[in-house]
Write a structure and sequence with these properties.
- 55% of the residues lie in helices and 12% in strands.
- By secondary structure, the chain is an alpha/beta fold.
- A six-stranded mixed β-sheet has the order 2-3-1-4-5-6, sandwiched between helices.
- The longest helix has 30 residues, at 43-72.
- It is elongated and about 80 Å long.
- The chain starts with 6 loop residues before the first helix and ends with a helix.
Length: 311
């Protein structure tokens, strides 16, 4: 399994393996020297030692769940009133002119769909028809499609015009997006001052707000970082990408965690050391599937190194 595993993940699992090996060494000593068992196996000490290992596994398993998002991608929808710059934003994110950009409101009559890569996160992004009271049947259909896309999206990007005061249509849209991961993007910062509108939406503490210019590309990297963080829960870093386990690793870690928790239960119930050693070995075996196995020799080295026994 070593060849397909990121350096960051390998380091983390080796560290957890090391923590478990130390505990196993102590349990082995207690088995060999039953008279010293009470002294060697201090339950509080062992608990303190195993907790970081279990927490480390829990974190890596949740990283694997994020990894699924990163592999499979997400769907995002750009919503807003006509002419706030939705198509310009889509083009800026795509870094090319694909959606129709004109200054006539109501031009994107339908939904325009694109795939883009945002910091390695595959995003299926939909630019919707501007939401306003429809002027004509074609626009009405576009608006209905926009609303349908909004309900199925993983992420909603609501675009507002920096120069316009908050509008009833915006408030309606904001209400429709309730309960979804939402980023408010205030556009046209190159020509207008966004403070009023920023203050208006700042009263919703869970909503991320960013001010950009789709035209000049100003603050687009901040928006991309925000999209990544809103979806994965993490700030983007190249290193974080290295620590994403694949499905096989995730399964092995889940089994190792189960065995580690079983050891903890045994400890709390004052189980015999030889039975507790089995749980630890099971956990080490599962981690060994990912980073190579810890042998009995490693454990003996650890015992003699830490306890100066048999010298």
């Amino acid at each position: 399994g070593l060849e397909q595993i990121g350096g960051g993940l390998k380091t983390k699992i080796k560290k957890i393996s090391g923590q478990l090996t130390t505990i196993k060494a102590m349990v082995e000593v207690a088995i060999d020297f039953p008279d010293e068992e009470a002294e060697i196996l201090n339950a509080d000490d062992l608990r303190r030692q195993i907790e970081p290992a279990l927490k480390g596994l829990e974190d890596l398993i949740s990283a694997a769940e994020h990894g699924k998002i990163i592999k499979d991608g997400i769907s995002a929808v750009i919503i807003g009133r006509p002419n706030v710059g939705k198509s310009s934003l889509l083009n800026a994110l795509l870094r090319e002119e694909r959606a129709i950009v004109t200054s006539v409101p109501g031009t994107t009559r339908d939904t325009v769909e694109e795939y883009l890569d945002i910091l390695g996160l595959p995003v299926h992004i939909v630019d919707t028809a501007g939401i306003r009271e429809a002027r004509g049947e074609v626009e009405e259909i576009g608006i209905q499609r926009s609303m349908a896309k909004l309900t199925t999206a993983d992420l909603v990007i609501m675009l507002l015009d920096a120069g316009s005061p908050p509008h009833a249509d915006d408030e309606r849209l904001f209400a429709k997006a309730a309960g979804k991961p939402l980023i408010i993007v205030i556009n046209k910062s190159d020509i207008k001052r966004p403070e009023i509108i920023r203050e208006h939406y700042a009263r919703f503490p869970d909503t991320a707000i960013v001010t950009i210019s789709a035209k000049t590309g100003d603050s687009l990297p901040q928006l991309e970082g925000l999209i990544y963080k809103t979806i994965t829960g993490d700030d983007y870093s190249a290193e974080s990408r290295q620590t994403i386990p694949n499905l096989r690793h995730q399964a092995a870690m889940t089994k190792a965690l189960k065995a580690g928790r079983s050891f903890l239960r045994g400890l709390n119930n004052e189980l015999a050391p030889d039975l507790m050693a089995i749980d630890l070995q099971t956990a080490l075996d599962y981690l060994g599937e990912i980073v190579g196995y810890t042998t009995t020799e490693d454990i003996l080295d650890k015992i003699f190194g830490d306890f100066c026994l048999g010298k």
